[in-house]
Amino acid sequence: MRHQLKNFYRMKMLYLMEHQNSYQKIQRYRHKKCQSKKYLASLPTVSVVVPFHNEHWSTLLRTVYSVLNRSPEHLIKEIFLVDDASTKDFLKKKLDDYVEKNLKKVKIVRVKERSGLITARLAGAKLATADVLVFLDSHTEANVNWLPPLLDPIARNYRTVMCPFIDVVAHDTFEYRAQDEGARGAFDWEFFYKRLPILPKDLENMPEPFESPVMAGGLFAISRRFFWELGGYDPGLDIWGGEQYELSFKVWQCGGRMLDAPCSRVGHIYRKFAPFPNPNHGDFIGKNYRRVAEVWMDEYAEYLYQHRSHYRRIDPGDLTEQKELRKRLNCKPFRWFMTQVAFDLIGKYPPVEPEPFAKGTIRPESHPQLCVDARRGKQMDKLYLKSCMEDAQSEQQFIFTWHKDIRSKSRNICWDLPDSTPLKPVVLYSCHLGGGNQLWRYRPDTKLLKHGDGAKCLDWNRETRDLYINWCDGSATQRWTVDSVDQKMMAQWDKVMDRVTGPTNDY
Ligand SMILES: [Mn+2]
């Protein structure tokens, strides 16, 4: 018993130290200038809306307590925990009692039937009475001074929608870490969420908020007035899926704007798997996408259907109200959004992929019986040369894509150079769609395979047959043949992608 107690206190000490450390770490994550930034003295009040379904006790309460502890007290008017028909016992009376006793600002809202997070968010928003709605997932941690950076721009212009930077809370250790230095939200033509680089002018301006075409999902702040002017979410959207696009398009097309605030950070646990099934509502995601596309995307909807042709056959339901809303608010065409806000999206996620520059096997000119082989390697595994053959183990077909990377024909993995010092190996890494250390160029005339800026070339070791990078000297081991080279595409090499430099003004 004594031993256990001692252990308990030691663990508690460790926990506190850890906590202290992570607090300092958390401080460090933010841009240095965030600490000296000034905000309006008078900021709007907030209703926080947190939908949940069978969320864990600790993560749900961490969400609530972090909001209460890390916000100016007078700004938090109420927190709605919207229970989307959870089945876990402790989320019923036990939660009611706990909230009643300890959390005066928290109100629990019960949705009778499992109806998904869109409906749950709407249910909370309908009851909200503060100036600004802040939506959070039920497994988040609001970070140091997260709120004023979201509220200040909304106070100045109520049609501004603000998103925090989303940090990563590890699902297995709860370690808190930064995701990255931020990016602009976007999508591809299968409606997967994607990201675009921060613009140079915004980088210079850090840590000021910058415009982002679409939000990542469920973490954002919007004035209650603007949210309802936009009709909230389309109530015809079912369960989840597409709602972040719908709201983002509406915000931009109907007179608002959306910004990411680098000084506002919220940690989010990315689920490894959802511990609950989706309700059985058929292809609700397809239906949601169809509604968003039909109402907001005009002629660009066609690109989505070209990638997912079965969407054409899904009945989107009644769209009259949504189309009337768009008309009533005099919203701009999707083309405006694509050329003024997401102007670099098409360049990075083209509706139709251009032909590759080259493809096939890649062989040393002096040893044509050898092929570069990725052999089902994992991230960071080395590439090397092997006898050319087609069998279950070999992976010798590559594509020089128009992103100027070299990708396995059969999967989304690319030649990468984590360290470009001479003699460092070439490894496999998830393709990041152009640029950086995955940039390669093949010269059919010299047969050199150049990396990055072109000073270093692919080379190989005759004994180990490993591939590595070295200064280009035109030696025999630096000369390569590729099965099929598209001369026409090669001629365009320098033009492709570089043409996208800034907003066009053709509207
Ligand atoms: Mn989440």
Short note summarizing the structure:
It is built from 14 helices and 24 strands.
What ligands are attached or bound here? manganese (II) ion
CATH architecture annotation name of the largest domain:
Alpha-Beta Complex
Query: Which word captures the global form?
Result: elongated
- How much is the average pLDDT? 89
What percentage of amino acids are in beta strands? 15-25%
Residue share in helices?
Answer: 25-40%
The CATH homologous superfamily name of the largest domain equals: Spore Coat Polysaccharide Biosynthesis Protein SpsA, Chain A
CATH topological fold name of the largest domain = Spore Coat Polysaccharide Biosynthesis Protein SpsA, Chain A
Strand order within the widest beta sheet: 3-2-1-4-11
Strand segment tally: 24
Pathway: Protein modification; protein glycosylation
Membrane topology: Single-pass type II membrane protein
Protein name: Polypeptide N-acetylgalactosaminyltransferase
Domain Ricin B lectin: 359-483
Task: Please give a structural write-up.
- The protein has 507 residues and is α+β, with helices and mostly antiparallel strands.
- The protein folds into 2 domains: 40-352, Spore Coat Polysaccharide Biosynthesis Protein SpsA, Chain A, CATH 3.90.550; 358-491, Trefoil (Trefoil (Acidic Fibroblast Growth Factor, subunit A)), CATH 2.80.10.50.
- It has 14 helices and 24 strands.
- It has helices at residues 2-29, 57-69, 93-102, 116-127, 148-156, 200-204, 224-229, 243-253, 284-296, 301-307, 320-328, 334-341, 345-348, 487-491, and strands at residues 46-52, 76-84, 106-111, 132-135, 140-142, 160-169, 176-177, 184-187, 193-196, 210-211, 220-223, 257-269, 358-364, 370-373, 384-387, 398-400, 406-408, 413-416, 427-430, 440-442, 449-451, 456-460, 467-471, 480-485.
- The strands form 7 sheets. Strands 3-2-1-4-11 form a 5-stranded mixed β-sheet, sandwiched between helices. Strands 5, 6, 7, 10 and 12 form a 5-stranded mixed β-sheet that branches. A 4-stranded antiparallel β-sheet has the order 17-16-13-24.
- A hairpin with a 4-residue loop joins strand 21 (449-451) and strand 22 (456-460).
- It starts with a helix and ends in a 16-residue tail after the last helix.
- The relative contact order is 0.09.
- Bound molecules: manganese (II) ion.
- Manganese (II) ion (MN) is lined by residues 137, 139, 268.
